[in-house]
Amino acid sequence: MSPCCIRNAEGGEQVVVNGVPADRIQQGNDRPLRRDGEFVLYWMVAARRRRANFGLQRAVELARELDRPLVVLEALRCDYRWASDRLHAFVLQGMRDHVADFADSGALYWPYVEPEPRAGRGLLQALGERACAVVTDRFPTFFLPRMIAVAAARLPVRLELVDSNGLLPLQAAERPFARAVDFRRWLQKHLAPHLQRFPVGDPLRAKLPAAPSMPAAIARRWPAATAALLEGTATALRALPIDHAVPPAPFEGGRVAAGATLRTFLAGRLARYGEERSDPDADAASGLSPYLHFGHLGAHQVFAALAKAQDWSPLRLRPGSSGQRGWFGMDAAAESFADEFITWRELGYAVAAQDPAHDRYDGLPTWAQTTLAAHAGDGREHLYDHEQLESASTHDPVWNAAQNELRRTGRMHNYLRMLWGKKVLEWSPTPPHAFARLLELNNRYALDGRNPNSYTGISWVFGRYDRPWAPERPIFGVIRYMSSTNTVKKLRMKEYLTRWSS
User: Fold this and answer.
1) Which candidate among 49, 175, 207, 387 keeps its CA 20 to 30 Å from the CA of 406?
2) pTM of the predicted model, to two decimals?
3) What is the C-alpha to C-alpha distance for residues 478 and 368, in angstroms, rounded to an integer?
4) Which of 315, 333, 325, 291 shows the shortest CA–CA distance to 448?
5) Mean pLDDT of 226-231
6) At 73, which helix (H) or strand (E)?
7) Helix intervals (H) in 294-365
8) Rounded to the nearest 5°, which phi and psi values hold at 280?
């Protein structure tokens, strides 16, 4: 694939494609395609973007094949676990961007925000009864798989799930991999063909039948969100039955903010990423994970932009089978970012898709559960309850600073997130208690929580994707140990501690 084809995922020059790859499409039910329906419905739930979106691309393909208009439904329910001002505001800002993005698209975009629990029930069914088919996004964790399975059983027409999660289709990996090095070795043999199967930059550049109006009965019962609501103002959020104790992040969600973050990272921080990303004072992280999680930015867009910045083409790949880093043929900093963004991110998604226990303590490797169980009764010098942890009220200033950053911004420095998890394991009555606490803290406050990579990071604390480490220690057994004292010695973080200590 040529670099121009890669750049196309950024929304640039349109190229001829052969459609959405079959390994990206999954049939959600056995209902028929209704050729005499009024429109094709794209139910946007995870890939919340217009561009570089295989799900939207598939919906456009069906609309063109059937010569029917396209309706795009993006709904936000209020009763999902951890619903808060922070998470809602981030999604609403993306919906606000979509109102403008879809205005000239030829499709009808309908943003619906549930004002109270269960108010949105029946909306998808009502649209499905008029649709030729429903296309939605496949996402491997949180409540989305259950929600879509219920919808699939109720819809009277075909439901297709389309995977836009990563460079690698979810079903491509042959098994759940236990270590990153093993997955990297597999990627080195199998990723290249998937780099020739990018989504089109803008599926809605294709000509479609004129967009319909929303049927009056549906519009009255489930009205489109107002512009004021989509701004996510404090007044608008207060009117919703969600957690108001977790405030919006100090930065915005949506396509526009996602694109600006990506450009700023590639132009400024990428060059320092390899050497400085672990130093909290260096501010060399990408900042992309919230946008990737909510689908405001796609993996193909990130890779396309990275390839353009590196003047890269697939001819520079150095595939092999060693499992070692540094095989993309990019400079050292870009290689470091590519390994985090591709190896670790794709690993988390592949495991989430294949392992139903990926988000549970009992899904940890047997050796890890065994060693933790053997030391579960060890004495703990410090024990904190959940409220003390949540309010950053421990004896450890490094941990408190990391927790404060998470509470106030919805982000946490990547390296400190590992230490943060290890300390909760050390300060909890039992390992299962620690696992549950980390899920609660992360999923409530982190914008990139409730994601396969959240579960990757939390389960890594307890030994997943890792190996036994000597010497055997109290509480940890042979689980890898980390200390705040060594972290302060190892990293530059004076400014970080000053900023987040109070």
Assistant:
1) 49
2) 0.95
3) 8
4) 291
5) 95
6) strand 70-76
7) 299-309, 332-338, 345-354
8) -60, -35
